[in-house]
Amino acid sequence: MPGAGAIILREGRASDAPALAAIHRRVRQAAMPGLHEAHDEADVAHWIATTLMREHRVVVAEQDGMPLGYIGFGEDARHGPMVLHLYLAPAWRGQGIGARLLAAAGAALGPRLGLHCIARNAAALRFYRRQGFRVVAQSDGAGTEEGEPDLLLRRDSLPTASNDREPSP
């Protein structure tokens, strides 16, 4: 639950991976009940520490030393600058943290960003649309681990300041 200390953004560390994996799983289960998870929490933590953090950049939002959420981003050979993961613990939504994490990716990669989102993740889609993203392509999910239809979203400019405190995914 929200505490009293300042919420800071910092570079992710391999030691964060178990907490980030727990957030990852909790958020997905809450947003999309019944979602087929191809990997358990330990596998996700291993992937975050050994692949996501080594090949891309991860920024963690934390309060009083406790991770609240994270964003993973980098260059994708096919799609250019991409947000690869953005997960925020449900208790922390609506406080502008998701927008701050997206701003960190935008500061590093520029305002033109892409991302994939599972089509039935309505809360995430609302958030991304408020942040200036639009759907540019969709798939039937046959090529995804979850087997779920997904959307490719793109943002070509920074959102207005009024969007900064909207609920996060």
UniProtKB/TrEMBL annotation:
Database matches in Pfam families: Acetyltransf_7 (PF13508)
UniProt keyword Acyltransferase, yes or no: yes
GO molecular-function terms, A-Z: acyltransferase activity, transferring groups other than amino-acyl groups
Keywords tagged on the record: Acyltransferase, Transferase
Domain of life per record: Bacteria
CDD domains referenced in this protein's UniProt entry, alphabetically: NAT_SF (cd04301)
Region Disordered: start-end pairs: 139-169
Keyword Transferase: yes
PANTHER family from the UniProt entry: AMINOALKYLPHOSPHONATE N-ACETYLTRANSFERASE-RELATED (PTHR43877:SF2), AMINOALKYLPHOSPHONATE N-ACETYLTRANSFERASE-RELATED-RELATED (PTHR43877)
Protein name per the record: GNAT family N-acetyltransferase
Organism ancestry: Bacteria, Pseudomonadati, Pseudomonadota, Alphaproteobacteria, Acetobacterales
